[in-house]
Amino acid sequence: MPSSPESAAFHRAHQRRSALVAALRAFLPSEAILAREEEVRPYECDGLSAYRQLPLLVVLPRTVAEVQKIVRLCHQKGVPLVARGAGTGLSGGALPLADGLVLSLARLNRILAIDPLNRTARVQPGVRNLALSEAAAPYGLYYAPDPSSQIACTIGGNIAENAGGVHCLKYGLTVQNVLGIRFIAADGTEIQVGGACLDSPGPDLLALFHGSEGRLGVLVEATVRLLPRPERAQVVLAAFDDLEKAGTAVGEIIAAGILPAGLEMMDQLAIRAAEDFVQAGYPREAAALLLCELDGTDAEVSETLAQVHALLLQCGATQVRTARDEAERARFWQGRKAAFPAVGRLAPDYYCMDGTIPRRKLPEVLRHIAELSQRYGLPVANVFHAGDGNLHPLILYDANQPGELARAEALGGEILERCVAVGGTITGEHGVGIEKLPQMCVQFRPAELDQFRALEQALDPQGLLNPGKGVPSPRRCSEYRQLPKRAS
Amino acid sequence: MNPDTALLAEQVRQAYEDRKPLRIRGGSTKDFLGHASPGEALDLGTYRGIRNYQPKELVLTCRAGTTLDELEAVLEAQGQMLPFEPPHFGPRSTLGGTIACGLSGPARPYWGAARDAVLGVQLLNGRGQVLRFGGEVMKNVAGYDVARLMVGALGTLGVLLEVSLRLMPRPAHTQTLVQERTASEALTAMNRWAGKPLPMSATCWDGAQLFIRLSGTPGAVRRAAQEIGGEPLAPEAAVQFWQTKIRDQQHGFFLGSDPLWRLSLPQAAPPLSLPGEQLVEWGGAQRWLRSDQSPDSIRQAVETQGGHATLFRGAEIPSRFHPLPPSLKQVHRRLKAAFDPRGILNPGRLYPDF
Ligand SMILES: Cc1cc2nc3c(=O)[nH]c(=O)nc-3n(C[C@H](O)[C@H](O)[C@H](O)COP(=O)(O)OP(=O)(O)OC[C@H]3O[C@@H](n4cnc5c(N)ncnc54)[C@H](O)[C@@H]3O)c2cc1C
User: Fold this and answer.
1) Contact: B144, A429; criterion CB under 8 Å
2) Which residue segments constitute the domains of chain A, with CATH numbers given?
3) What is the distance in A from the centroid of ligand 1 to the CA of A372?
4) Which of A36, A56, B95, B331 is the most buried (most CB within 10 A)?
5) B12 Cα to chain A: minimum distance (Å)
6) Closest listed residue to residue B334, CA positions, set A178, A161, A210, A203
7) Which tens digits make up the pLDDT trace of A304-353?
8) Could you tell me if A462 lies within 8 Å of chain B, comparing CB atoms?
């Protein structure tokens, strides 16, 4: 029985659905097609659960040939499609469309080859990020980009969002760790870009696909770089009684010519939440905490460690601790990696932002966020990839209180616009998706957005690949620009 | 808009109106790369100057016509450098030309390519619109990565006006070691070492000897040198070797008269048995071949290893860059039309037909 307007709409689309299922059944087994409401319900949102939409249906192909046939069918029938990896995205990139198909790549999850001498792996898009590093471990190798969601998220999703992780400061983002891709274009053609070499001729299409949110093609294979496990990794924890001092310390470390493997910062709300959640051994009274990881050869780490230790104390750290053993190092990181869910326990809902700013603007932007938090009456916890200026303010709210979600979004929007104003960007690694369309109109001028659309049309003339995400329509931007400035 | 920016924009807009091709020119040090393009020169050589340099952030933005010499002198004064060690091929070499050609030097496999260092660009598209993509921050996924798309486009998608780059501190200590090796021993050794956490920053086998550069903290370099072994090269000789002989191709190998091919291969691909001389760089990922063999036979040999071959210098052939499969070529053609609808920017420079 349809129980909501949305559910009613789902059932009204019955005829379109049946026709499409019939066509799909020609080449897909029935268990690979989900068409009942209770079956598609789990796909209604990604990690940004404030946005939900039931898809027309969900397909779960097992082979590249099946993916290709699905895309061809959509092309013929003009049905839009949304590619989906693990659905951990935080910007609504994998949010379904009411009249579209969700194409899950989760079953294309084979590691096709690991080449230890070349230090590369060829994988299907549904391979989980962590599974790849685990498979490479026997060769003394690993896959460097390590988003905190690495247990679940897929390599396809990582490429589509150009995911980062705590180690990307030294080892680069996904785009710096992928050598080649194979994708199915909007018309069903299979195309290979790059391979196992370090470059390919002509404009850098490979880079273009990184962060393209499933709007330029469906990835069906990737060749990635694997790196040797460092001989030694050591993490230093530093506590500060003041956020700005911690911010300064970050700049000083980088300016001294040190390139840490990771340089992360948390504020008091985040520190306490993480400590209560996983008992990481963090100092609860600290106003800010820095985690600085150094890796490399034993000699290199020892030499740099001494330097970092001294710098942190000079910058006013109240406490500097080096993890005594591997277990303590893992605990320090566990607190950081669990920071989102930990903060999530403090309120019924949280909203994760993702701006990047020039590092020197850190104190200024943190002050501004604190003011906004006061003004909107919503607590904000801060977790950041401080080394590269990528902020993750977590706004706490209760979606069951009327108007609180809208307030949280307005607050978040103001934070992102401040990031743009100080020379930064509205998203460092989570993508634009459906969420940051309004702020795209702030970061880019109309001619630039037009250029994005032209580029997109070059690859997907019918606009069937994940339409309505990533790049706002001109109308939406002109409406947004005319809004009275919120809350100020 | 600055008057000089407006002037360039106007030139492109006029060419768009008149449907007249433009030949984008920086320092003219890389005219040999790709094909000759017809059209009136659009001069970027005087569009120069550093716009923003934040040593503490390891970020710099400068105009495309700034010479590499000028830029590198400024960075050196702050103990910093361009991670991709771009070739110069002459004193007038500009940053814009370097990025458009996507050229990287000896450190490429270890510290990243030109495209990895690019954070943002300001450009003129084929309609003469001034557009900005990316920015000056390390992480940025707002909008498509148009900035990196420009790397290797040889100016066919846009006129680069400004480029923002990620920099790196100069390593505290560097040492180069030399070993006598055959090609196949050298390839195996380079790839074995690369599979270990050693501070390598360049490798080259020049036909007789294997050169390995180590960079990092003094202790780390010393220990790695012990592990790898070989004769140390004197510091001045090492700079001369990597910068002049290899990066800028003044090594005897490059001075021969046969056509010079650049082969891009998976690093550990075995030595290719092609007639002619070879010089191996980048742990095996970049190999230079001097050979008068037919382009087809060279390309076939490289393709079977999953690589591609560019005719870098010498000879005249229909496609100096490795021909693309039709489906991929179609994507490039359509992207070209999206940025340059009237095909006025360096037409034919990259591929003869667009
Ligand atoms: C707790 C938590 C922590 C996180 N931490 C980080 C972090 O540290 N760093 C970070 O960068 N992100 C982080 N994320 C965000 C998210 O995990 C990443 O964006 C991840 O890359 C998404 O992968 P996925 O497989 O879940 O993709 P999905 O969410 O399924 O999809 C994301 C986008 O990619 C597209 N897509 C997926 N697969 C394909 C394909 N095969 N072909 C074409 N398009 C495709 C989708 O259409 C969608 O637009 C975190 C998320 C959570 C929930």
Assistant:
1) no
2) 8-104 (3.30.43.10), 111-228 (3.30.465.10), 232-342 (3.30.70.2190), 350-363+373-381+392-481 (no CATH)
3) 28
4) B95
5) 16
6) A203
7) 999 999 999 999 999 999 999 999 999 999 999 899 999 999 999 999 99
8) no
